[in-house]
Design a protein that fits this description.
Blueprint lengths: L1 H9 L4 E5 L11 E5 L4 E5 L6 E4 L3 H6 L5 E4 L7 E7 L13 E7 L15 E3 L4 E7 L3 E5 L5 E7 L4 E8 L4 E3 L3 E3 L1
Parallel strand pairs: 1-2
Antiparallel strand pairs: 2-3, 3-4, 5-6, 6-11, 7-10, 7-12, 8-11, 9-10, 12-13, 12-14
Length: 181
């Protein structure tokens, strides 16, 4: 929705309106509305007839990513906590393709990079590929597997807590707290 709203704001000289039933008449000016039901821009000029222009096909709209699902494990032998992430599309359905996301560890949910990285390692578990490490053990670029999954094994020797944050390109999301005793 953010992309659509930003696109609509760029169209100068038009009055914008959000509606799911754009069956209103406006005379003397242009009207542009986003119809969420149809996923279309609805335009009328000088009170004329409405025309609907699809923004994205339903298939393309589903390719936009939504909120991922996080599974934060418990600390196991060797001071390791596994955090599994399932990426989802805009409809909440598990991705059926590989995607690249930015991942970072923070001390507070949704905040900036942690000033103190884990004392040991942050590595890919079973799923996904580490593409790049921008800041050692705290800011990563990860490619999921072809089912939209990746997981991290985070090793911390001391008593510490982190949140795992994921930026999908359509929004940033954070996990439950991972805590080492």
């Amino acid at each position: 929705m953010r992309v659509i709203e930003q696109t609509l704001r760029l169209l100068k000289g038009l009055r914008l309106k959000n509606t799911s039933t754009p069956d209103v008449s406006v005379s003397g000016e242009a009207l542009l509305a986003y119809d969420a039901t149809l996923n279309a821009v609805v335009a009328s000029e000088n009170g004329g007839a409405y025309s609907r222009v699809p923004l994205l096909s339903n298939a393309a709209f589903a390719l936009l990513m939504g909120a991922p699902a996080f599974t934060v494990g418990v600390e196991s032998g060797g001071n390791v906590i596994n955090v599994a992430v399932q990426l989802k599309d805009s409809q909440g359905v598990n991705l059926a393709y590989s995607a690249v996301v930015q991942v970072w560890l923070s001390d507070t949910a949704g905040a900036a990079l942690s000033g103190t990285p884990p004392s040991s390692t942050v590595v890919i578990g079973t799923n996904g590929v580490l593409v790049a490490s921008y800041t050692a053990k705290t800011h990563l670029l990860i490619r999921s597997n072809t089912s939209g999954q990746f997981d991290l094994n985070i090793t911390e020797a001391g008593a510490k807590s982190f949140y795992i944050n994921v930026d999908t390109g359509q929004g940033a999301y954070f996990s439950q707290q991972a805590t080492w005793a």
